[in-house]
Design brief:
Elements (H helix, E strand, L loop, with lengths): L3 H37 L1 H4 L3 E2 L9 H6 L12 H7 L14 H12 L17 H12 L4 H4 L2 E5 L1 H5 L4 H17 L10 E2 L8 E5 L7 H10 L3 E3 L3 H10 L5 E3 H7 L5 H6 L5 H7 L4 H6 L4 E5 L9 E7 L4 E7 L27 E7 L5 E7 L4 E2 L21 H6 L11 H7 L6 H10 L3 H21 L18 H10 L2 E2 H8 L3 H8 L4 H6 L9 E2 L1 H14 L4 E3 L9 E3 L6 E5 L2 E5 L18 E5 L3 E4 L5 H9 L7 H4 L4 E5 L4 E5 L22 H14 L6 E4 L2 E4 L11 H9 L17 H4 L5 H7 L35 E7 L7 E2 L10 E4 L15 E4 L8 E2 L3 E2 L5
Parallel strand pairs: 2-6, 19-26, 25-29
Antiparallel strand pairs: 2-4, 3-4, 5-15, 7-8, 8-9, 9-10, 10-11, 11-12, 13-14, 16-17, 17-20, 18-19, 20-30, 21-22, 23-24, 25-27, 27-28
Helix pairs in contact: 1-5, 6-11, 9-12, 12-20, 21-22
């Protein structure tokens, strides 16, 4: 009989002998499972983007954490259930998983769903202190006169969080490609891993290699939401020798942020018009067209453009300049086959609505610029012209959308205009047909231009690969864009290990530090205490500065708002803002306005000048956004809640408006979802929201309390309510003609642009007044359901009236940046509302109310003036 000691020894020996066999078997089954998923699922659920937000089918830890797979349990593994029941892939996919494929997935899950990738070897943890020591040692290898041009990108936190060698290599490659794609230097220069860094996660650049300067770096740091200045002698020396507070930024954040506006435009120094860019590249598009030096392809069915599209080639000193002409319609001058010549003002020439410019940089990589129909640079393409299915909202975003589409350079396009013109040659004059045939060449000639560009780009991309860490890894041009893939990866949810690594602490210390944070932050991160729990990236960004403070890790350096873009998004709420240009305009209404009987005496027409560009919310503030403010402000109650008087809501039983304690922003008396504009908030509540949003986004508060009343601080730099003049300039959308509405004079057209008192309103409330048309909503509508004005602002008229900053009073003639009267009893609100007809929805109509009042037809939107103005 074996003794207990012998049995223990035997078992130990058995484990030692048979563990490799078990491990090998698991490796084999995981490889087979991965092959099945690659064959049938990757097309929709990996890489660039994923359907229904599921983009990680080859990431076993996330499959388990998100409960798509429960190791050892087929019943609780939706991935297996849907495959075995032939629900996935979708029915329209011809290549179906075989019975053997289904068995492989079953056996993989029953075996415990072992990871597809080999375990990451233990690496040395590089603390922030060690990271700075390595940087300083590297800096000291350079001449002091050269040190001011040295900067660093770090992937150290990703290494500390256990990212695989392959993932780190992909980040290095993406970072190198993006930096060089933002360069006007003539050569490709790959960032260098500094010596003595065991993880090769600290990468050095010289600003001069990319034609950058110190101001370029300052613009990067100004946008960085992860800036921490450490109070150590090593950190001080690094900053002193380089000449800036933060000589490094995180590489993964940079890959995400610098591939899109505003940083993409700022770093690349892209001008604001196509003409300026063409001058910079020393080409004359109009003259090239006149001389018939361009080569074109026109076609239907572009993957991006909603309608027909024209692609045009020009030669530059660096390679090629490609310009597309995109159209918002398909008829008349928007039809390229009907009007193949142009662009121009003549009625026989095509009239485009925007386009994309792709041009070779001196290093032969590609850069991009989106433009509107007037050649003005824009951040995003309008959805009625172009769309990007890889973006969550399908919007084409300059930089990142273009990169993902052109990962291998120019796409192959086949012209249809030439053949179509030859088929209908009797409908053209001899000169027209000859010009068409010259501009739209035969297929081989245009293909040669595409191939030439693709070859230059391919050779340049292959020079950007980082080869120091993994020999022969990632040295071929990929069909997917690594910058886009890793940008989307950066947007993913954050687990405990990564959250802790991003602050430079151990996970246990991170959880302890949360105990010192405000209750709202502690609650927001409570999911990290769960097995496999995660938080949204925005949650970490919002709380990052406060976590640095309560954990005493250093001094947080918040990002600055130095905005030169046409739009931006609040990091706290996701609220989108649109730039409104400065300028002089006529405010009010003329005595001769159509329907002058509707005009009020306080609408005196006068001249106003707005001297600064400013930003205004694309939409009114929603219930969901206002709820976030309330939940993040412990104990906050709106004025109607605090004094228990409520506000004016809709009483369905009496079919009338009624003031009652039960009516608050949570219940206005009619149904509202989180996407509807918040109502029953007073002017004072709106101001409190603005100050909260400023704090959350790292800006100074714009309002201060004086004798229990809110006042605007001098030169406010945070969020605030728009002045009445700013509101009206934004509402007019640049239209100079004095019309009743920003789109014209016909109130029946209101239903296209605004949710107002109409047929639906009458049915919902029993009212008798209102316009004849039907807009589809009886009460408030979700924001953004109607056509925007020319500036891209939604619901400026209708839906809810909007609080302005001003006290109500007489207008000032020829005013500069008017703020309205210094005192008053009621505040201005503008824009009509869901229960207001054509008269009150006029853009010159002035509403007003007590700053303490909450009304079910009044909400607000937020304004901001960029810093430096």
């Amino acid at each position: 009989m074996l003794s207990p000691t012998s049995i223990c020894g035997f078992l130990t020996l058995a484990v030692f002998l048979f563990s490799p066999i078990k491990a090998n078997a698991q490796n084999e089954i995981s490889k087979r499972a991965k092959a099945v998923l690659e064959k049938h699922c990757v097309a929709c659920h990996n890489g660039d983007y994923g359907e229904n937000g599921f983009s990680f089918v080859l990431q076993q830890p996330r499959l388990v954490a998100k409960k798509y797979v429960t190791p050892g349990n087929l019943k609780d593994s939706p991935l297996y259930q849907r495959i075995s029941k032939e629900e996935m892939p979708p029915g329209d996919v011809k290549q179906r998983p075989s019975k053997e494929d289904v068995v492989i997935i079953r056996e993989w899950i029953e075996a415990g769903a072992p990871d597809f990738n080999p375990p990451v070897p233990e690496r040395e943890i590089v603390t922030p202190s060690k990271m700075l020591e390595l940087m300083l040692a590297d800096l000291n290898t350079f001449n002091p006169r050269d040190q001011k041009f040295i900067r660093y990108y770090t992937l150290t936190h990703l290494s500390n969080a256990g990212f695989s060698d392959e993932e780190l290599q992909n980040y290095r490659n993406a970072l190198s490609k993006l930096i060089n794609s933002l360069s006007w230097g003539r050569d490709i220069v790959v960032p260098k891993a500094i010596k003595n860094d065991p993880t090769k996660s600290i990468l050095r650049i010289n600003l001069n290699d990319y034609d950058w300067d110190e101001k370029t770096w300052e613009s990067i740091v100004a946008a960085n939401p992860y800036g921490v200045v450490y109070a150590t002698e090593v950190a001080r020396k690094c900053s002193q020798q380089v000449g800036c507070n933060l000589p490094y930024v995180r590489g993964d954040w940079f890959v995400h942020a610098a591939a899109r506006p505003p940083l993409y435009h700022t770093i690349l120094k892209l001008p604001k018009t196509d003409k300026e860019l063409e001058t910079q590249l020393r080409i004359d598009v109009a003259e090239n067209i006149r001389k018939e030096l361009v080569r074109r392809a026109g076609f239907n069915g572009s993957g991006v453009s909603q309608n027909n599209r024209l692609l045009e080639w020009h030669r530059t000193g660096y390679g090629a300049y490609w310009k597309s002409y995109d159209f918002a319609g398909k008829v008349d001058r928007k039809n390229l086959f009907q009007h193949p010549l142009g662009p121009g003002d003549a009625k026989e020439l095509f009239q485009h609505d925007g386009g994309e410019i792709i041009f070779s940089l001196p290093n032969k990589l590609q850069a991009y610029m989106l433009i509107d129909g007037k050649g003005q640079r824009i951040d995003r393409g309008p959805l009625n012209v172009v769309s990007d299915p890889k973006q969550k909202d399908r919007t084409v975003v300059n930089g990142i959308s273009c990169m993902s589409c052109h990962a291998q350079g120019m796409l192959n396009k086949v012209d249809q205009v030439r053949e179509a013109a030859l088929k209908a040659k009797n409908s053209y004059t001899v000169n027209e047909l000859t010009t068409i045939l010259r501009l739209y060449p035969e297929k081989k000639e245009f293909d040669d231009k595409l191939s030439e560009s693709a070859k230059l780009f391919k050779e340049a991309v292959e020079k950007t690969f980082f080869r120091e860490a993994v020999e022969n890894s990632g040295t071929k041009l990929s069909t997917t864009e690594p910058i886009f893939v890793l940008s989307r990866r950066f947007e993913d949810e954050v687990d405990l290990k990564l959250a802790a690594a991003e602050l430079g602490v151990h996970p246990d210390d991170f959880l302890k530090g949360l105990g010192k944070a405000p209750a709202a932050i502690n609650r927001a991160f409570s999911t990290l205490r769960l097995d496999g729990g995660t938080v949204q990236r925005d949650v970490l960004v919002t709380a990052f500065g406060e976590l640095i403070r309560v954990m005493d890790l250093g001094k947080f350096q918040p990002p600055e708002f130095q905005l030169d873009a046409s739009t931006f998004i609040s990091k706290t709420t996701g609220m989108q803002f649109v730039r409104v240009p400065q300028g002089t305009f006529k405010m009010g209404s003329p005595a001769s306005e159509k329907g002058e009987k509707d005009r009020a005496n306080d609408e005196v027409l006068h001249e106003v000048t707005i001297t600064k560009d400013y930003f205004l919310g694309m939409h009114a503030v929603t219930r969901g956004q206002f709820r976030k403010f309330v939940e993040d402000t412990p104990g906050y109650k709106t004025e109607g809640e605090a004094d228990k008087t409520g506000g004016v809501g809709w009483d369905a039983t009496k079919s009338t408006f009624l003031k009652d304690a039960k009516y608050t922003w949570k219940d206005p008396g009619f149904p509202q979802a989180e996407s509807h504009p918040v109502v029953l908030v007073s002017w004072n509540d709106a101001v409190a929201f603005c100050n909260w949003l400023s704090r959350q986004d790292g800006l100074p508060e714009s309002y201060q309390k004086v004798k229990e009343a809110w006042e605007l601080v001098p030169n406010p730099r945070g969020y605030r309510l728009p002045t009445e003049a700013e509101w009206e300039r934004a509402c007019r959308g640049g239209v100079e003609k004095q019309t009743r509405y920003f789109f014209g004079d016909d109130e029946e057209d209101l239903a296209k642009y605004a949710n107002v008192a109409d047929e639906n309103y009458r049915k919902a409330t029993g009212a008798v007044d209102g316009i004849k048309a039907a807009d589809g909503y009886g009460f408030t509508a979700p924001v953004g359901q109607f056509k925007p004005n020319a500036y891209g602002l939604f619901d400026m008229l209708g839906n809810v009236s909007q609080w302005c900053n001003d006290w109500y009073g007489d207008y000032q003639d020829k005013a500069l940046d008017p703020l309205g009267p210094q005192t008053g009893s009621v505040r201005v609100c503008r824009g009509g509302g869901w229960c207001v007809g054509g008269r009150g929805s006029r853009l010159a109509f002035r509403g007003r109310g007590s700053p303490e009042a909450g009304l079910c037809v009044v909400g607000f939107r937020v304004a901001l003036v960029p810093s430096g103005q």
